[in-house]
Structures are given as structure tokens and as C-alpha cells.
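Quick question, first post here. What does this chain look like in 3D?
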Amino acid sequence: MKNSRGFYIGRFQPFHYGHLKALNWILEREREVIIGIGSAQFSHTLRNPFTLSERVEMVWRVVKKRDLTSRVIIMGLPDTDEQHSMWVSLIKSYVPKFDRAYTNDSLSRVLLKEAGIEVSNIPFFERNKYEATKIRRLIIDGGNWEELVPPEVAEVIKEVKGVERLRALAGRDS
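> Answer (accepted):
Ran it through. C-alpha cells below.
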């Protein structure tokens, strides 16, 4: 195992099995991983329904259950309101030292590479099945979303009344 640290960026709205598979894939390549939860300041919208603290709790419970706490750091990262040139500076200020970033987001890749940061793609793991937008839609529509997220994530979503929140945001209050 390398003596290195990766930086895995995502919004995790919510954290699903595709994210977990990606995390495990990164951990096969890195000694430690910093999970940067993006759009930290946003919540209570259809695109970003969960707060930063709720998303941290989701990821933390998953990491803890799998005994990965000694290898994973979880932190929030706010967006820079489309002032893209500031984003990498914000990362350098907020995030502990890392050797490479892992993201499939094209804008993030461009900004990080322009700043001289090594960037690696992450394989998509059953992207047609594990996709957060689809999971949020299933939650709203009363579909079977729980099989797409780790049990710890479903538990947090229920505890914070995330199903009710998403349905209300979509105008489908019960």
C-alpha cells in the first residue's frame, strides 16, 4: 500500500453504494483518503436536500461500520459561488495535504489540473443504478431507494426525516 493520501470530492446527496465502491477503490491505491463534501453551505433544495452535518453523519457511520476511521478524514467544503479561480485556493486553505485528487467532475478536474494538482478519474460503479439524482427521485416517488444506499445512510435519512423533507420540497407532502 502506498504511503499517500488521496482527496475524494463529492456532494454525497446522499452517500450511496456507488460512492462506497469508489471509496474502497481509492483506498486500494492510497493509505488515507480525505473525503471532501462539497456544496457544504447548501441544503433543503431538491438538488442538495441534506445539510453538511447530515452528510458528514452518513459518511461517518459508513466509514465507522467498516472500520475505516483510521484511514479516512471527512470534511466540508463550501462552493465559491461560481468564482472558480478561488476554488482551488479554498481547497488548499481548508484541506490537509494530499497527493492526488479523485473526481469525475469536469470543472473540478480542469481547475485542479491548472493548479498543478494530480487528478485521477474514478471508475463509475453501476452508474445507471447508483446515481444520487435517481435516488432522490425514488425517495420523492415512494420507490425502493433503501437498497441503493448503505443501511447507515438510510438510518440517517430516516432520523432527520429526509423522506418527508424531500417530498415537501417536491410539493408532495403527505
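Residues 141 and 167 are 8 Å apart (CA to CA).
The first helix runs from residue 17 to 27.
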